[in-house]
Amino acid sequence: MGMDLEGKRLKDKVALITGAGGTNSIGRSVAIRFAREGAKVGVLDIDGPSATWVADEVIALGGEAIPLTCDITDLGQCKAAATKVADAWNGKIDILVNNAAAFRGVMSKQSWQPFNEWKVEEWDYMLDVNLRGMWFCAQAVFPYMKPQGYGKIINLTSSTFFEGVGGFIHYVSSKGGIIGFTRALGRELGEHGIRVNALAPGFTLTEANIEQTTNARLWWDVTRDRQSLKERNLQADDIAGTAFYLASADSDWVTCQTILVDGGLSMH
User: Is 171 marked active-site?
Assistant: First the structure.
């Protein structure tokens, strides 16, 4: 079924979504939801074929998308990706979804370790991708949002920050940093009409999370039992609706905030 764009809330908006590749990812779900709502979508991922797959999926559904291969730890690549998106659609970028993230140690490939066993290089890599990458992407889109006097930046953090989950301290620390980044950036960019908010998912049954979880079914069951809503685990599509709210005009008076989407597991 194609996309009827009449009456869609993001019609004529241009969105850049990082970490949007994959067959089952939050970024993919957000890209498809935004396209269904009328947005033109830049599908960015470090894995080029993965980005192309999702962009092609959007196009097959009747939407508009372009794939972008980019390592968000490289400011030059981020700026080049933003330029491609703006050049494709009349010099516009209205929405940035900072979703790309690292989940495990780049050297050890471990997901869980005591805080004093992680290597310095693994700590640095995690913060480079999860925090510095957002800073770079925000810098890349700012020149397009500022002249418009309007924009939406949505930063993906994690409920692990609110829970203080042990075993991957570099990941939790990076996600806590994103909340500080969101507040400070939103305070700075308010005068330009740019709204900056954070979205904090709980444990989501994405391809990346399933791959990294040992005793996966047990972990899913434990997480579901701790949620207030217990009928199932969180899915990638569950995040897309809140991302759409933050991208739409419905949230125009919301900035510097963090919204948890975890079935009531955490509260703040």
Answer: yes
